[in-house]
Amino acid sequence: MRPSRPGAATFLSLTFLAALLVLAIAAPLIAPHGVNEVIGGNWSPPSAANWLGTDNVGRDLLSRLIWSTRTTLTIATLSTVLAFLIGGAVGFIAGTLRGWLDIGLNRVNDLAMAIPTLIAALVVLSVLPSRVEVLVAIMALLDATRVFRLARALALDVGATDYVEAARVRGEGLAWIILREILPNALPPLLAEFGVRLVFAVLFLSTLSFLGLGIQPPATDWGSLLKENKDGLLFGVWAALIPGAAIALLAIAVSNVTDWFQEWTTGAAGRGKHG
Question: What is the mean pLDDT of the chain?
Fold first, then answer.
């Protein structure tokens, strides 16, 4: 079975994600105006000077969309990476060692997952300041519980194979078994899950900002743009729809790429077995 090539939808999704990455990295060079620079009246329509018009206080919406893309993707990526480092490491250790440690960590993780993530974040952010590092830490810890569950399941599954048992018989240490035996075989589902968790991080951050507990002015993200311009919908202004469309397109693009990646890894594994 040959690995499938990217279709039109996957290619467009990859192009969109690449464009977002460029915007996030080169925002100071690409954005026509500063993030809080007032250039005209509120909710002005799109024009040659302002491609997306202005927001509720007369700031260039295109510039704020570019700057908010940088903030949103940076925080979402950092929190997702940290969640996988924490949850993945603890999950692999629990699934590999098993026994009482696995049972204890699994029960603690189940207890943490029983608390709704939004409520937990709202409680913590009502006490702590909504700084970037605080948001990253909270989002990472809450998401690490989901990553732990997947990593533990993968460690239990791969750990039951003959080559892992052979490594144990040879006397290999825990780090060797996890990094050299389990992780390479668990990497495809983990990478696919990374895309899913990244989208959830973007949605979670946008929700917190929309509720006023996420990114605080003068910085902005997609959720802040939604909150600032939501009243424009009453007057037929589409400024609030633009960040919402960005979130939706990101979710669709990541879903398409994740589906293709799973098909590609399945095809590559099939070709390796029959090659």
Answer: 88
Distance CA 224, CA 210 (A): 6
- Which DSSP helix (H) or strand (E) runs through 231? none
CB atoms within 10 A of CB 162: 7
Half-sphere exposure for 201 (CA within 13 Å, toward CB): 33
Write out the two tokens for 193. 């899950």
How confident is the model over 50-61, as pLDDT tens digits? 888 888 888 999
* pLDDT mean over 40-44: 84
- Domains of the chain, earliest start first: 78-274 (1.10.3720.10)
Do residues 27 and 66 make contact, with C-beta atoms less than 8 angstroms apart? yes
Whether residue 147 contacts residue 193, with contact meaning beta carbons closer than 8 Å, is answered with yes
Beta strands in the chain (DSSP E): none
Which pTM does this prediction carry?
0.90
Residue that wins the pLDDT comparison between 165 and 86? 86
Give the long-range contacts of residues 115-122, CB within 8 A, separation 24 or more: 117/142, 117/143, 117/204, 118/204, 118/207, 121/204, 121/208, 121/213, 122/211, 122/213
Tell me: the pLDDT tens digits for 117-155?
Answer: 999 999 999 888 888 999 999 999 999 999 999 999 999
For the chain, give percent helix, strand, coil, nearest 5: 75, 0, 25
Please report the DSSP string for 176-201 in residue order. Answer: HIIIIIIHHHHHHHHHHHHHHHHHHH
Of 205, 203, 85, the C-alpha closest to 138 is: 205
